[in-house]
């Protein structure tokens, strides 16, 4: 009988009991708004910011309503203007170009390499062609490129960097936390990321003026002194009448759910890594399938897994995805012509009038993705890898005209 996987690719772990207890306490006292505090009380949101800043070694932290809101707030704090070009990855998730478009600015996409990181030569070319001064760098699917080379290039080009760390919360490059290389790091606490409050986000920075701008933008009214991970009132003094309120605050209920999860991030990274490496060894040697190498300096969080099917035609990939789905294995194919569920193809963001990027097109045509939720065991991962290996072999045998079976590149 054919093996079938019966687990769920979208089932996350429950909220820790400490988070549930803290959330119930907030519900019982009713002070959900972050600035609604009893005398002498310190709100959950202010504490969350202080603790997340400490975890990352950042001077300032602001909690927000979503990861997308954090990125838009970061761009506003950098005073990106309507019509201004903002560079970003051609392969990322829709909220990234959406954050740029929300300011009336113009996303300019940069090619992505076969290792799913930004192509630095194309970054330089796009920066020079457009005169952009900001890069919204997405560590898409947790692949952190060579941050030394990228930051040196951005420095030379005069580019300020905002890091989208939705998939790298808890990851590091040469020991430096992801989000701590650029001017501002942005994070998401949406259910499918590395901490779960349903919706939510953070930004962190060491720059006092950027932090003060972000706090005012988030909708602090004149209550910014109630923050614990923000600069002192003197920094706000010259800014407070010039910054619009773009309400996007975090609330105390979600902050209460999140606080106990900060201390779990490092353990979660280790558990994700075990699942990731299980999948990597399960798929190693499957002919026709290319795994993505992980650089030695990258301390990644393996919450999802990608592989490439170089040279496969669309019909055969569609057959593989359907065959795997029939056996309970949910694969996302980024080369599909029509967006299904969610999309990460730049050509689906027509509002940005993207130019054609042949290298990224070629990559996405053969790119497969799957989630690895922490509810999976290493046995689950081994079974999923066996099913994929089986289905890849079947697709290779299938008698299709025009079929080219490319050998794995490595
Ligand atoms: C999820 C995600 C975000 C932020 O998403 P929100 O739902 O707005 O929190 C940003 N970038 C990437 C790559 C993502 O996957």
Task: Characterize the structure shown.
With 410 residues, this protein is α/β, with parallel strands linked by helices. The chain folds into 2 domains: 17-262, Aspartate Aminotransferase, domain 2; 265-399, Aspartate Aminotransferase, domain 1. 38% of the residues lie in helices and 13% in strands. The chain contains 13 helices and 14 strands. It has helices spanning 17-29, 44-56, 67-77, 95-101, 120-130, 147-157, 208-219, 233-237, 252-262, 265-283, 314-326, 358-365, 378-397, and strands at residues 60-64, 85-89, 106-110, 134-138, 160-164, 172-173, 176-177, 184-188, 201-205, 290-291, 298-299, 304-308, 332-333, 367-371. The strands form 3 sheets. It has a 7-stranded mixed β-sheet, sandwiched between helices. Strand 6 (172-173) and strand 7 (176-177) form a beta hairpin. Helix 2 (44-56) packs parallel to helix 9 (252-262). Pyridoxal-5'-phosphate binds next to helix 3 and helix 4.
Helix run count: 13
Mass-distribution shape: globular
Quaternary status: single chain
Could you tell me how far the N terminus lies from the C terminus, measured between alpha carbons in angstroms? 32 Å
Give a brief rundown of this model.
This protein is α/β, with parallel strands linked by helices and 410 residues long. It has helices at residues 17-29, 44-56, 67-77, 95-101, 120-130, 147-157, 208-219, 233-237, 252-262, 265-283, 314-326, 358-365, 378-397; strands at residues 60-64, 85-89, 106-110, 134-138, 160-164, 172-173, 176-177, 184-188, 201-205, 290-291, 298-299, 304-308, 332-333, 367-371. The strands form three sheets. A seven-stranded mixed sheet has the order 1-9-8-5-4-2-3, sandwiched between helices. The protein has a four-stranded antiparallel sheet with strand order 10-12-14-13. Strands 7-6-11 form a three-stranded antiparallel sheet, with no helix packed on it.
């Amino acid at each position: 009988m054919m093996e079938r996987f019966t687990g769920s690719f979208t089932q996350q772990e429950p909220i820790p009991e400490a988070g549930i207890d803290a959330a119930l306490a907030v519900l019982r006292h009713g002070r959900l708004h972050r600035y609604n505090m009893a005398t002498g009380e310190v709100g959950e949101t202010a504490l969350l910011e202080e603790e997340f800043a400490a975890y990352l070694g950042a001077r300032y932290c602001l909690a927000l309503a979503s990861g997308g809101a954090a990125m838009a707030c970061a761009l506003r704090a950098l005073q990106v203007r309507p019509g201004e070009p903002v560079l970003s990855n051609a392969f990322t998730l829709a909220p990234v170009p959406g954050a740029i478009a929300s300011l009336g600015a113009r996303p300019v996409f940069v090619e992505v390499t076969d290792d799913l990181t930004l192509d630095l030569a194309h970054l330089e070319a796009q920066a020079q062609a457009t005169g952009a001064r900001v890069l919204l760098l997405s560590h898409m699917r947790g692949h952190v490129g060579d941050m030394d080379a990228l930051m040196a290039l951005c420095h030379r080009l005069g580019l300020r960097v905002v890091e989208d760390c939705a998939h790298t919360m808890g990851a590091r490059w040469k020991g430096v936390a992801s989000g701590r290389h650029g001017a501002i790091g942005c994070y998401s606490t949406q259910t499918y990321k590395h901490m779960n409050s349903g919706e939510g986000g953070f930004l962190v920075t060491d720059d006092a003026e950027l932090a003060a701008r972000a706090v005012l933008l988030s909708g602090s009214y004149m209550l910014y002194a109630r923050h614990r991970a923000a600069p002192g009132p003197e920094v706000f003094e010259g800014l407070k009448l010039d910054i619009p309120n773009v309400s996007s605050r975090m609330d105390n209920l979600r902050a209460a759910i999140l606080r106990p999860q900060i201390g779990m991030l490092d353990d979660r990274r280790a558990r994700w890594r075990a699942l990731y490496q299980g999948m990597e060894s399960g798929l190693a040697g499957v002919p026709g399938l290319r795994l993505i190498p992980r650089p030695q300096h990258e301390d990644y969080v393996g919450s999802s897994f990608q592989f490439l099917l170089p040279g496969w035609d669309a019909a055969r990939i569609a057959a593989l995805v359907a065959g795997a789905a029939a056996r309970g294995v949910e694969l996302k194919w980024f080369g599909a012509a029509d967006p299904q569920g969610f999309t990460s193809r730049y050509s689906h963001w027509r509002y940005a009038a993207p130019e054609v990027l042949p290298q990224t097109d070629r990559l996405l045509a053969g790119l497969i993705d799957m989630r690895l939720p922490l509810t999976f065991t290493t046995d689950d991962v081994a079974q999923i890898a066996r099913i994929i290996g089986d289905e890849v072999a079947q697709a290779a045998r299938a008698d299709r005209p025009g079929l080219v079976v490319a050998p794995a590149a490595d």
